[in-house]
Amino acid sequence: MMIVVAGPPGSGKTTWISEFIAQAPREVLYLAPGTEGVPLDAAYLSCQSDRIQVAMDRDPQDISAQLAQGTPVCIEVGVHLELTQERSNLQTPMHRVAVVPEGLQDTEWHAWADRVVVGNPQSTPIANVEIWRAMLTGQVVDPPSLDVFWYELVEGAYGEVKRAKGIFNQPDGSVFYFDFLFGRGESEISQLHEARRLAGRPEFVSGIEAIGVGLNTTAIAQTLQECCLSDTAIAHYQDQLAAMEA
């Protein structure tokens, strides 16, 4: 079984996939084409469930073999891809699921989908928006600086941000997920279920994605870089934590 999920930014595609994985009869193979450089959704879903395999660079023949063995395959279609680009070299039937806000009708997603699911009440139109991503794996952020940066980002200091999400490694070894959707209110911030790393730089995937209009990506990147800690600062934090926990 192959499920292809699409919809506007912030409509709830990843949430729907998380629920699908929880209800699937066996482990699910997950693909998000075009996000290999900053695989935020894959990292997030991996923390939500141990019943997911992330297939970033998986050989299509291998995926076909797993499909033949009954492994469900779920493909998340980001807004950077055309719906008609259909993702794969796999010769297998696809069930297309569109996750759209309530009240949205007669869109390309409706015409494309086999099934339409009502998602978040707010989402972002894709016309004329920019998508900016940055990988931060190995970086550790200063929490107060991150809070200021994120507030500035979602409040329009770097352009009109409609959707933003990020995974950030903290000095205490924890990992946090930040999620903003214009019109929903406050950003949702949660700690991911990932083992703390208290020696050297973290290996867990971290990064950021912003979708909006008139984004000053140079300023975003520079300010975010200023939030990242040096090796000396990271070692200082880790030494302090080790002493406290000894």
Q: What does this entry look like structurally?
A:
With 246 residues, the protein is of the alpha/beta class. The protein is 29% helix and 25% strand. The protein has helices at 13-23, 40-48, 60-68, 108-112, 143-154, 217-227, 231-245, and strands at 2-6, 28-31, 52-54, 73-76, 94-100, 115-118, 130-135, 160-169, 175-181, 188-191, 207-213. The chain has a six-stranded parallel beta sheet with strand order 3-2-4-1-5-6. Helix 5 runs antiparallel to helix 6 (217-227). The radius of gyration is 19 Å and the shape is globular. 30% of the residues are buried. The model has no long low-confidence stretch (mean pLDDT 88).
CA(first)-CA(last) distance:
50 Å
Order of helices and strands: EHEHEHEEHEEHEEEEHH
- Give the overall form: globular
Strand order of the largest sheet: 3-2-4-1-5-6
Alpha plus pi helix count: 7
* Class from helix and strand fractions: alpha/beta
As residue ranges, the low-confidence spans are none
What percent strand? 15-25%
Task: Classify the helix fraction into a percent range.
Answer: 25-40%
What's the count of strands?
A: 11
- Average predicted confidence as pLDDT: 88
Radius of gyration over C-alpha positions, nearest whole angstrom: 19 Å
- Describe the biggest sheet? 6 strands, parallel
Protein name: GTP-binding protein
InterPro entries: P-loop_NTPase
